[in-house]
Design a protein that fits this description.
Helices cover 37% and strands 18% of the residues. By secondary structure, it is of the alpha/beta class. The longest helix has 32 residues.
Length: 315
């Protein structure tokens, strides 16, 4: 609520909910929590996740998403009835945004599993926008390799066309696949999206506003989630993830980052800090964080990666 003086700083389009209050929301009809094995399968590298986090944060979130999906479907049916047309439901599209290393991929995978577990057993699919990054050769040609992950490094037209075709109800739409091992698109490999009930689109810049009079991908979302944290915490998580990858994926000869595999820990930390400060932090501050206010729901994380607050858009 605004203060007695009407301070603009107290005015927000969001309801700010403490985790303890969020966890106490009615749980009727919620699906069962995931098994420990299921949580282990979903958890991202360096992202702590346990049953308490699932029950207290993500089960209520899945309920909110299901309410919105049901409301959207009911509105579409009533509109079709008013227009004297046969209902033609299209996928409910959820955008999940946030920084590198903030844990948005884990959130997206977790939501897929939880939404699938509802009694109605909806069909849920996930695509990540990494597949629409221009191939490495094209980024090099355009002089954008050092700005990989920035909005201009994506084939925005192709991504917009994909989501538009999904929302138009096409029977089959294809998405490109990206390899974090080779740091490039995978040739001749695609994800086929066949009119799911729910489609989750996860990526750094999925909440970017439209440019000029053009349509933006975010204009086609039915609901959006932003995974938020203090940039200092995200930087620490990024460095620790880099070190974990150095001991694992980077050791593979076919890894794009194989050159970092034998660095001493101090040098590896320094390299990770340099990459963060030159690429990921500028992208976060210039392009990703400004889109936070466009989300329907914000998950605010603490230093230990746990969600401490939920901000839900009013109305």
């Amino acid at each position: 609520m605004p203060s007695a003086h009407g301070s603009p700083a107290t005015i927000s389009p969001f309801i700010d909910i403490r985790r303890a209050d969020w966890a106490e929301l009615p749980s009727a009809s919620m699906p069962a929590s995931l098994t420990p094995e299921g949580i282990d399968r979903i958890r991202g590298l360096g992202v702590p996740l346990d049953d308490a986090e699932v029950r207290e944060v993500y089960l209520p979130l899945s309920r909110v998403l299901f309410l919105h999906a049901g409301g959207t479907r009911d509105l579409a049916e009533r509109t079709a009835q008013f227009l004297q047309r046969e209902p033609s439901p299209t996928p409910f599209v959820i955008g999940v945004a946030g920084s590198v290393a903030v844990g948005k991929s884990t959130v997206a995978r977790l939501l897929v599993e939880l939404l699938r577990s509802w009694p109605e057993e909806p069909q849920v699919q996930l695509v990540t926008t990494d597949g629409w990054l221009f191939p490495t050769a094209e980024l090099t040609r355009r002089g954008l390799l050092g700005r990989k992950g920035f909005p201009e490094s994506y084939d925005q037209r192709a991504l917009l066309r994909f989501v538009t075709e999904v929302k138009s109800g096409r029977a089959e739409v294809r998405a490109p696949v990206y390899s974090h091992l080779t740091y490039d698109r995978v040739p001749d490999e695609e994800i086929v999206v066949r009119r799911p009930d729910i489609l989750i689109v996860e990526g750094l810049n999925v909440l970017q506003p439209p440019q000029g009079h053009a349509l933006a991908v975010s204009d086609l979302f039915d609901f959006s989630v932003y995974v938020d944290a203090d940039p200092r915490h995200i930087q620490a998580w990024y460095v620790e993830r880099f070190l974990a990858l150095q001991r694992d994926a980077f050791a593979r000869p076919d890894s794009h980052f194989h050159r970092y595999a034998d660095l001493p820990e101090a040098a590896a930390r320094e390299t990770a800090q340099m990459i963060w400060q030159s690429v990921n932090e500028p992208n976060l501050r210039e392009n990703i964080m400004p889109t936070r206010q466009r989300a329907d729901l914000v998950l605010r994380k603490a230093a230990d990666h746990s969600v401490e607050r939920v901000l839900l858009r009013k109305g």
